[in-house]
Design a protein that fits this description.
The protein contains three helices and no strands. By secondary structure, the chain is mostly helical. α1 packs antiparallel against α3.
Amino acid sequence: MLNFDWLRGVSPAVAKAVFLALFAVTGLLVLMIPRQYIYAGVKSPRWWHNLKLWALGVLAIIFTIYYIF
């Protein structure tokens, strides 16, 4: 199977920080999506059509849950 013995020396605090940093990087990548891709096919764009807002909202919720627990 998988051998993760090399991770034995990593503390839970460091593992949590790395995991939360991955969420932050994902959020930054979402912000880099061009506006033309976000509103493709939408005739009259409204604020709730912006997929960046929805993706960042979901990432913020997940980030908060993992930060607390």
